[in-house]
Write a structure and sequence with these properties.
By secondary structure, the chain is of the alpha/beta class. The protein is built from 16 helices and 13 strands. A hairpin with a 6-residue loop joins strand 4 and strand 5. Helix 5 packs antiparallel against helix 6 and helix 7 packs antiparallel against helix 8.
Length: 460
């Protein structure tokens, strides 16, 4: 849909998560030329309440023909350009649940509004100059943040902390391109190009691009988190470890081996990093068909995990069964958790020396959890994935564009070193400018916009 088509249409959508019998408020949002007229047709505000921008009215939502009351609600008015989309925006704040908001949305559609596509409100905000593309993506990151650190980096992007340096870098490249093209067109009328200065500016731009590009792994870590699988023989304390770590009773704990038959999941935050912890069924040769399925699922989860916590029983020590499990997961990042250390001595006998990261725990007493978290953070940081004190973090799309910009800048530097004509300089400078423009949306295709905003929720 083109920008002109946007300007002539009014969209509506439910803007809050709707859960049956839960939630006190549900919001239906409209944006577009007809938003105010539709609100007038549906909303009755008793008394002398003024219909002015940035006011909240109290009243009733009624069917325009039958005058049947649908809900008692509040109406929020925001006239262009002082709104999220820079269009006229109205919001019906209804009672929560399903029926009220669905009926109100249906009335809006019957009055001529169109059902909004995923991310269409934010897309309009971008097309109308309210947001740049990095800010729009930061909104999606903020909505989906799984840790306080992830929310903070998303908020930094929303405040322009990524867009500002990218625009500065692009402006520098544009200035350099103008200088080079001026020498091509008016060589006789201008002094010679200051080549050392051009080289210095290119080196500085490339250095800054590399600095921002280095945050890509951190950004992916904050958005996706780390998937951690607790694996080991039956009855070594895996479920107790999960319960102690999550401070809950997510998993059943008994003295009977094979109690856990399926993967039990818990969501945690460690050092600002979202962590998905998966307690798996004890891995052994099972006779019971149900347990066999659980063991197979455990092996699958272990192979897909970012980090494996191989748990053993200190009372028993390292066994052939432990060795067999280790051989299946040793290619993954791994921490050895030696549980029940209060009941045994000499538990480290026969443990392979190749396992360097080891933590001792007494899960039943909630002991050793802090050391385990420190070991996890150390393992993550060893992989150059730092999430703490991160000012900004780019996503995969932005990283791809920055990589293209870096390649183009490197090519310009090689062109200068090879003393090629100025015309060759301009080719790669334009490529770098285009790549940087794709990040903020100053030079972006419709297909890229479709791909970005299709991942948004409807109503945002």
């Amino acid at each position: 849909m083109t920008q002109s088509e946007f300007s002539s249409s009014t969209i509506a959508a439910i803007a809050t998560a709707i859960v049956p019998q839960q939630g006190s408020v549900g919001i239906v949002r409209m944006s577009g030329l007809e938003a105010m007229a539709i609100a007038h047709a549906l909303f009755h505000a008793p008394g002398q309440q003024p219909w002015e921008s940035h006011r909240i009215l109290y009243g009733y939502i009624r069917h325009p023909q039958t005058h049947q009351v649908i809900d008692e609600a509040l109406l929020l008015l925001m006239q262009a350009p002082r709104s999220y989309t820079r269009e006229d925006v109205v919001e019906f704040h209804c009672h929560g649940g399903i029926m009220a908001v669905q009926q109100v949305l249906q009335l809006c559609l019957e009055q001529g509004a169109k059902l909004a596509q995923p991310g269409e409100f934010t897309l309009r905000a971008f097309l109308n100059g309210r947001l740049d593309l990095t800010q729009a993506e930061s909104i999606a990151d903020l909505v989906g943040a799984r840790s306080p650190q992830a929310a903070q980096t998303a908020l930094a992007g929303l405040q322009g902390k990524l867009a500002h340096p990218i625009r500065q870098l692009r402006a520098t490249c544009l200035d350099l391109l103008a200088e080079v093209e001026a020498r091509i067109d008016f060589e006789e009328d201008l002094p010679p190009l200051n080549e050392p200065e051009v080289k210095a500016q290119l080196a500085q731009v490339r250095h800054e691009v590399e600095r921002i590009l280095a945050t890509a792994n951190q950004g992916e870590l904050l958005r996706s988190g780390v998937k951690v699988a607790i694996v080991g023989r039956p009855n070594v304390g895996k479920s107790s470890l999960l319960n102690a770590w999550s401070r809950s009773d997510r998993a059943i704990v008994t003295d009977l081996p094979g109690t856990t038959r399926d993967v039990v999941e818990s969501q945690l935050v460690v050092g600002g990093i979202p962590v998905q912890v998966l307690d798996t069924a004890g891995i052994r040769e099972a006779v019971d068909r149900v347990e066999q399925l659980g063991v197979e699922r455990s092996r699958t989860v272990a192979q897909a995990a970012d980090l494996v916590l191989l748990t053993i029983d200190a009372q028993v020590g390292w066994t052939e069964a432990d060795q067999a499990i280790y051989e299946q997961v040793q290619h993954r990042p791994l921490i050895l958790v030696i549980n029940k250390v209060d009941l045994a001595d000499g538990h480290d006998r026969d443990i392979p020396q190749t396992i360097q990261s080891r933590v001792e725990t007494v899960a039943a007493r909630h002991q050793g959890i802090d050391a385990l978290e420190q070991a996890i953070l150390a393992t993550v940081h060893a992989g150059a994935l730092h999430a703490s004190d991160l000012e900004l973090a780019i996503n995969q799309r932005q990283a791809a564009a920055l990589t293209r910009a870096k390649t183009a800048l490197s090519q310009v530097q090689m062109t200068i070193a090879d003393q090629l004509p100025l015309d060759f300089w301009t080719i790669d400078l334009r490529s770098a400018i285009q790549a940087l423009g794709e990040i903020t949306g100053e030079d972006v295709t419709e297909s890229v916009l479709d791909r970005i905003f299709s991942r948004f929720c409807i109503g945002k």
